[in-house]
Amino acid sequence: EPEVTQTPSHQVTQMGQEVILRCVPISNHLYFYWYRQILGQKVEFLVSFYNNEISEKSEIFDDQFSVERPDGSNFTLKIRSTKLEDSAMYFCATQTRRGDTQYFGPGTRLTVL
Amino acid sequence: DAKTTQPTSMDCAEGRAANLPCNHSTISGNEYVYWYRQIHSQGPQYIIHGLKNNETNEMASLIITEDRKSSTLILPHATLRDTAVYYCIVRVADDYKLSFGAGTTVTVRA
């Protein structure tokens, strides 16, 4: 069964450093998402991406965040200058078309020191 | 803005059916009911979804009331591996995001 994969599984970084989180979507999926979950809190939507454009983003997704699909397969989330409060699990999700079921990856645990 | 209401937690005996309720009294005609679960801190796992008819797949059954104001997820034979947080989510058909609430923490006991 096809799965969404994410790398790395755990990333530790110093405050102020840039991090890139990677996701490999299911092969025929065209819509891509990032969500995050701070420890003990709800899963929160960050951004949706389709056809090389952001289709929707939340208030959390400020100028420190960016997304791209650099090579037609990977889907990345970049945090330009990490803050302590960026420490969270980051989940990628993908779907075939708008409104279809979203499938999630296993997540990347980001720890900012 | 929570569109769904779920109990905070519930216990279930291994091998028995687990019935997870969800209230969505303000649901609109074009909104689907989705169920996901999250085991520990793993990525949310899709379980099942429906619009107005009852649905069944290899994981669970979804029973939606006729007025669509509530639904029940049924895990027919709960196992210890079904221990997780279960999320009931209402979503417009062409919406992008999923809006997660706090969910129901289900503990399956031997």
Work out the strand percent of chain B. over 45%
Order of helices and strands of chain B: EEEEEEEEE
Distance between the terminal alpha carbons of chain B, to the nearest Å? 36 Å
Chains forming the largest contact:
A-B, 26 and 22 residues
Shape of chain B: globular
Query: What oligomeric state is this?
Result: heterodimer
> Which structural class fits the helix and strand makeup of chain B?
mainly beta
Backbone CA Rg of chain A: 13 Å
**For the report, how would you describe the main beta sheet of chain B?**
5 strands, mixed
Give average pLDDT of chain A, whole number. 94
How would you describe the overall organization of this protein?
The complex is a heterodimer of chains A (about 110) and B (about 110). In chain A, strands 2, 4, 5, 6, 9, 10 and 11 form a seven-stranded mixed β-sheet that branches. In chain A, strands 1-3-8-7 form a four-stranded antiparallel β-sheet, with no helix packed on it. Chain A is an all-beta fold and about 110 residues long. Chain A is globular. Chain A contains no helices and eleven strands. In chain A, strand 9 and strand 10 form a beta hairpin. With about 110 residues, chain B is mainly beta. Chain B has no helices and nine strands. In chain B, the strands form two sheets. A five-stranded mixed β-sheet of chain B has the order 1-9-8-3-4, with no helix packed on it. Chain B starts with 8 loop residues before the first strand and ends with a strand. The model of chain B has no long low-confidence stretch (mean pLDDT about 95). At the A-B interface, strand 4, strand 5, strand 9 and strand 10 of A face strand 3 and strand 4 of B.
